[in-house]
Amino acid sequence: MSFFEDVESEFDRLDEESQHHDHTIETTSSSITTDYEDNALTDEEVRILDDREERLFNYINNTQKVESCILIGVEDLSAQRKANKALRMQQSERSSGDLTTTTLDDISLSWTLEESMTEMRELIKTAGLNLEGEITQRLQEVNPRTYIGTGKVKEAQQLLDEINEKLDQRNEGTCCTVVFDAELTPGQQKALENVFNKKVIDNDFLGSDSEEVVKVVDRTALILDIFAQHAKTREGKLQVDLALHEYRKPRLTRMWTHLERQSGAGGVGLRGPGETQLEVDKRILRDRILVLKDKIDNVQKQRDLHRRGRKKGGLPVLALVGYTNAGKSTLLNSLTRAGILAEDILFATLDPTTRRVKLPGYKTHPEVLLTDTVGFIQKLPTQLVAAFRATLEEVKEADLLVHLVDVSNPCWRKQEVSVTNVLEEIGAGDKPIVRVFNKLDLLNSEDAEMLKYEAVCSEDFSVAISSLTGEGLSDFVAVVEDALSDLLVPVELELPYSCGNEVNLIHEVGSIEVIDYREKGTYVMGRVPRSLAMKLDKYCVGNIERSEASSETEDEIDWAALGKGRHTKKEASY
User: Fewer beta carbons within 10 Å, N or C terminal of the chain?
Assistant: First the structure.
């Protein structure tokens, strides 16, 4: 009898332990669910993570085959002398007030070979290539046929053979790409490929699908490839596609070398399939370029409509410009939660993004429009400048440019000069600029304090910040307000009480210093944009800017009529 009692007590004990265990599991699962709900991601954070995974997953986890390459850098001394002379002439033409704190004595105007090679290594890494070796050469004049000397061409071929032997031992494929830190002509590119593929040409396999064919890629092609990888929107893909077609148009001849010899020496009447196919390809390429230009023109028209809508709102437009990887997208995310991909890679952002920003200002209205644009780089390919004209229009039409400079880069002063030159090339060099020394968190305390002191003592609008940690953002807001206040004109108005919308508009796009409700209407003294001042000129009761605004309006109307050929310019009365 005692045995059965012991068994029943043991079963009761096990049942109690099982219930306690189930209760513990329920409590743990409920706490996990609560923690998950508390840490749930917002839609913007999910979009950022999806974009980051799409771009970086294959590269980080090596799920795709990594192509090996070698890098050849050339320091063209004659080109450096020409570039220095041109930059000195440009800076001598600028007034002393427009000059930055960087002078000709502070830095060398041209990029050194090592600095340019460092940037090329970053471009190669961003493109997804594996750098296996490097060759450098300094030349007084480049070789018009192969760009580098014949001895360096042989050295590059020997380096390729040595690397391929090592890769074969490790079963990692072959090294079949040669990257040049220069812009090669189509003839130079074809001559170099013929030299590197001499064995393949002798075996009559050039143009086949063999993986042993060595490709020659110059700086322009590498940048275009990065843009093609990072373009995600329809607009970005159209612009990159146009740039690629413009680049490939003069380089079609090397694609049909295996058919060129069939034309023979017979002359007229014996045109071979090589020439025939080449003409067909040229015609197809020309037609494709025309179609792409028409589509980009439609995109530009849509952007013009958006810009007109923003101008009607009266809010000032600020464009973030700067060298690639300077922190433009990080700053926009810090101010607006825009949800833009911000990674430590080159050309992470290609498409412009505009967001409304609320600044706690007192000199101007706190709301402005902030636009993130594509980053610049030295030796920017002309095909990209032409293809991205719809995007660069955002920079030209902005009221104020915010130039971000990555001060953690040793070449940041040269990067600043490169960006300034690109802005002048696209017609935005006369825009008011706010210089922002970014990435202070990557500097030591002494260098950071020196840059802050330089920004404070600068005659132009300058500020030192860290867009990642938020350091100096309050100073950034104050400097932007000072720059925007110069875009406003003082007004003294007396608006009828029926013009309530106009008073609200002044509150939104300007700043009011004095407001008084009088017998005839609302008296307002403050600062507003010039376009709004012209619209409200009939309510002006003071002499502030009235004569200047009216005279500018009359001249503009008279010259517009004169340009259409319908009227003659009004005679000035004295």
Answer: C
Nearest residue to 467 (alpha-carbon basis) of 457, 476, 455: 476
Return the residue matching tokens 């002509």: 185
Q: Which residues contact 398 (CB under 8 A, 6 or more apart)?
A: 317, 318, 319, 371, 428, 431
> Measured on CA atoms in the order 510, 512, 513, 519, is the torsion positive or negative?
positive
Residue type (1 letter), 131: L
Q: Provide the residue type at 400 as one letter.
A: L
Tokens of 44: 């913007």
Half-sphere exposure at residue 393, Cβ-oriented, CA atoms within 13 angstroms? 18
Percentage of the residues of the chain whose pLDDT score is greater than 90: 18
487 vs 457, more confident: 457
Per-residue confidence band for 42, with pLDDT thresholds at 50, 70 and 90: low
Phi, psi of 175 (to 5 degrees): -95, 110
Q: Residue 426 and residue 392: Cα distance in Å, rounded? A: 8
Phi-psi region of 101 (alpha: psi -120 to 50; beta: other; left: phi over 0): alpha
How far apart are the C-alpha atoms of 253 and 244, rounded to whole Å? 16
DSSP string, 399-434: SEEEEEEETTSTTHHHHHHHHHHHHHHTT-TTS-EE
What backbone torsions phi and psi does residue 207 show, to the nearest 5 degrees?
A: 95, -5
Per-residue pLDDT of 343-401, as tens digits, reads 778 887 777 788 888 776 656 666 788 888 888 888 887 777 777 776 788 888 888 99
Whether the pLDDT of residue 159 is over 90: the answer is: yes
Q: Position of tokens 């006369």?
A: 430
Alpha carbon 35 to chain centroid distance?
39
Structure tokens at 212: 């042993």
